[in-house]
Design brief:
Helix content: over 70%
Structural class: mainly alpha
Order of helices and strands: HHHHHHHHHHHHHHHH
Length: 421
Amino acid sequence: MDIIANYGTTLVLVAALFGFLMAWGIGANDVANAMGTSVGTKSLTIRQAIIIAMIFEFAGAYLAGGEVTATIRNGIIDSNAFAATPDLLVLGMIASLLAAGAWLILASYFGWPVSTTHSIIGAIVGFAVVSVGPEAVQWSKFGGIVGSWVVTPAISGVIAYFMFISVQKLIFNTDDPLNNAKRYVPFYMFLTALVICLVTIKKGLTHVGLHLSDGEGILLSVAISIAVAFAGWIYIRGQQYNPQDDSKMHFANVEKVFGILMIITACAMAFAHGSNDVANAIGPLSAVASIVAAGSEIGGSSHIAWWILPLGGIGIVIGLATMGEKVMATVGTGITHLTPSRGFAAQLATAATVVIASGTGLPISTTQTLVGAVMGVGLARGIAALNLGVLRNIVVSWVITLPAGAILAIAIFYVLQICFS
């Protein structure tokens, strides 16, 4: 109690600094692998990817990020276990932010696409066990998160597999691939827009005071998606296609059409990522700020201070711009060879899986979801299309992340206790 009373402002400032570092790591690692397919297929430049991330990460975090933020802040551990010692919870959350942020930046330096979600969860579990005891951890929810390691890559992989198979059947394996691409790609645009509109209108816009019934939400989502598909149809028809391009690279004109679609799915992916993973930085930071503001009282829920979301968003964009290239290369070109059509299938499958999980409040890993989707696209062309060596290294980095976050958080927690005692 005395620590919060005497050092409240300092604790919030330190938490903000480490929260910014965590957001930096998220940008360098998770946003990089979320945008890796778009950059890897050359549908977007790095500068364009950063601009898209700036806009849609903010939108996803603000409109649809509340559910997962609550899970990170008060779902992995039982806040009631810290009712008598709120100072331990504050120091632990600060330690978790620094531990997870440091691990993410280290992993990004080596080009490892690790899970930002699991790094912060491992850190929170680590400090909770040493500060209060194993009873402070809600192991049932932790078990669900571990189960998501298999479930979410499998779901996104299956969606991506059948999505790309449908592209092959309807477009590539036909007598007139280009005209069929012009015919069917607007339908894929409709699906992409529908995924985002449903989660935004039905769930997300409640944050800004717009409450719609299920029927109204579905009708509005369908209407917006039809408008997007129609606009895409007009744009695709207006583009110039050179038949000689196909002689240089088979299906070059078809991939040009899918390159347009990749931009839409990149927006979808950024929104989906923002709705789920920005919470990794702002959740613990929001917990510290709310406990200090409430005079050491631990509440079940709290209003997120106005400055926290911008801090997280700015950190993510800077992280992507300064350290994102290595992880982008690993995901975009290392696992399997991606073209715009394959990248579209992977991104749409990932976005669909992440926004569904965000609606349930389960903090899944965008990294694992995307890798599962890229694997699904690769498997559609046979196991030989996958770089198994790269996949092995990725899986090893996933396994290391939880204990790495926990060990770092425990060490930093003890140092913070010494500094503020």
